[in-house]
Amino acid sequence: MTFFSKWLRLVATVAAGLIPLLARAGEKAPNLLYILADDLGRGDYSAFGTADVRTPHIDRLVREGMECVNFRANSCVCSPTRAALLTGCYPDRVGVPGVIRGEQPANSWGWLSAKAVLLPRVLHGAGYHSALVGKWHLGLSAPNTPNERGFDFFKGFLGDMMDDYWTHLRNGRNLMRENTAVIEPEGHATDLFTRWACEYLESRAGREDPFFLYLAYNAPHDPIQPPPQWLEKVRGREPGISVKRAALVALIEHMDAGVGAVLEKLDALGLAQNTLVVFTSDNGGVLSLGANNGPWRGAKQQMYEGGLRVPCVARWPGRIAPGSRTEQSLLTMDLFATACEVAGVEPPAGIDGRSFLSTLRGSGGVVPGRAEYYVRREGGAAYGGKTIEALREGDWKLLQNSPFAPLELYNLREDPLETRDVAGKEKAVFERMSAALRVHVQRGGVVPWQPADGGAH
Asked: What predicted TM-score, i.e. pTM, was given to this entire model?
């Protein structure tokens, strides 16, 4: 570490200690900007070292902030992770163990609990204005729409996935909304979400009350439909790239440009210095679509590390040391408690997430050791409406990647790529963790994951 980087880290640490004093002196409360990609693989940004993708704006966040290199999504699929981010809880404890498909009630595996308190509602107590731009995926109708669950402003897509990035339809149905109004915008969804996020930031410039903006892209989720000019740029630059990989890289790079536009808007409006920006993904990438999950085994929909490990970087000028990184094991639900601490509000009692603000500040604090539980419920012949789970305790990870397969046990320190199942060898560890996993499953089973009327949601 150079003298200059040591000096920057010292300045950031000192500044972090001054934040409470400044707040008491009447300084404006910090803004929060959480950016969530959809199905972005752990290795699919250039700062990771991947040569065929160029993401200068995600890389900028890495350069100017802290990279969380052991960050995992709360689930290997969309809805549960989004529920964890917005509630600070393990997803099955708020009724979302699986993917919510509101337009397909017979194949929907979650229902956001009315008892769950979402982050925007908690932040209201500190005077925050909250907005969601982009993908919601936690319900299509009352009472589980963004405005009903605490967001002051919503402009985006209610559903799970779009059938087309330009038509924005899902099974022929328009799920685009501005608050509760149906809208029919024209353009690529990534461009729309970027523009709407920038417009929201413009609307908050100069206001005394702080904001929480949750920008949830649907890229690079399939269908893989980058704008033609972005695809041509990748093909021209990477002559040996496969057709499949080229399209995914182009879609990722197009999203990265959107992230850049939002960061530039923060700069232009003078908001960057007082805004904590976090960028992450809801689960690992889809290998069959050309994703790069790094060296780890597995992908989206799987309980192996490739399905759970995701990029995460946080930037807060003057508070987080630039170019820093943490090895701390963190989960998506920890972003909830972290936001609460930044805003100076108490999180709801009984949440599972823990703030890692002290880690971000570089002040020496770490999230205490804990077991980490992962869950996914799904239908179809491969799952039959049952769940798959994983439990991680220190170096040990117990998982069941199919409800019809035996439990597997791995030592991640000795075998980070999960190649050697030692369930039959480490019987004491296996029995102890199996019992602990059953307790987690029982706790989740207390919360209904279907609406009482069985209708669309």
From this structure: 0.93
Tokens 């030592």 correspond to: 411
- The CATH H-level superfamily of 3-371 is Alkaline Phosphatase, subunit A (3.40.720.10)
Distance set, CA 302 to CA 34, 44, 73, 204, 375 (Å): 25, 18, 12, 40, 10
Residue 350: left if φ>0, alpha if ψ -120 to 50, beta else—which one?
Answer: left
- Residues sharing a CB contact under 8 Å with residue 204, sequence separation 6 or more, in sequence order: 31, 129, 211, 271
Taken as a whole, the chain contains a residue count of 457
pLDDT category of residue 102 using cuts at 50, 70 and 90: confident
- Beta partners for residue 409, in sequence order: 398
284: pLDDT strictly greater than 70:
yes
Tens-place pLDDT, residues 376-420: 999 999 999 999 999 999 999 999 999 999 999 999 999 999 999
- Look up residue 177 and give its DSSP letter: E
Q: Where are the domains of the chain?
A: 3-371, 372-445
Domain spanning 372-445: CATH 3.40.50.20 = no
pLDDT at 63 > cutoff 70: yes
Asked if 342 contacts 276 with a C-beta cutoff of 8 angstroms, the reply is yes
Cα separation of 429 and 439, whole Å? 16
